[in-house]
Specification:
Number of domains: 1
Keywords: Cell membrane, Disulfide bond, Glycoprotein, Immunity, Membrane, Signal
GO cellular component, one term: plasma membrane
Strand order of the largest sheet: 3-10-9-5-6
CATH topology: Immunoglobulin-like
Number of strands: 10
Subcellular location: Cell membrane
Order of helices and strands: EEEEEEHEEEEH
CATH class: Mainly Beta
Protein name: Immunoglobulin domain-containing protein
Pfam family, one: V-set
CATH architecture: Sandwich
């Protein structure tokens, strides 16, 4: 079980979400590109969102939805259509240490309702996937040492 804490800075609200399922550990060299695979099925009328929670003390959580991706607020991040799962994977180019963290996706649906006074309200509901991905970025020295270790193990 993985506990995910998200903060909504607009409403000063913190939500704790329990995500059950596997955690995939991905390691990539700084400067490389990587695709994180979604296990969320997105039906017509729904949207995909991605979160990143960080273990860094000064690194804020990241919330990426389609409106932010398509408005280019995250130039190194893009959604890649995955027709086999009817979803969108997350592609990150030029990965850096600031991208480290636990990533997970969710299906977002907008719920529109009208209260007794006739005022229309919109609320988002999220259905989380069962998989999280822990992204670690290897610096050049770390990557070189890991490469040397693998070479040593393979030759002995």
């Amino acid at each position: 079980m993985i506990v995910i804490i998200t903060a909504n800075h607009i409403f000063n609200k913190v939500t704790t979400t329990l995500v059950f399922g596997a955690e995939v550990d991905m390691r990539v060299k700084a400067g490389d590109s990587i695709t994180l695979y979604s296990d969320c099925v997105i039906p017509l009328g729904s949207f995909i969102v991605w979160w990143r929670n960080c273990s860094h003390e000064h690194q804020p959580s990241l919330f990426i939805d389609s409106s932010k991706i398509f408005n280019e607020k995250f130039p190194r991040f893009s959604f890649v259509p995955n027709s086999s799962r009817n979803s969108y994977d997350l592609h990150i180019t030029n990965v850096s240490v600031s991208d480290e963290g636990v990533y997970y996706c969710a299906k977002r649906e907008s719920i529109i309702s009208k209260d007794v006074n006739g005022i229309i309200h919109e609320k988002s509901e999220y259905e989380y996937g069962n998989k999280t991905t822990r992204l670690s970025v290897l610096g050049e020295k770390t990557f070189f040492l890991l490469f040397m270790l693998i070479c040593f193990v393979l030759t002995n």
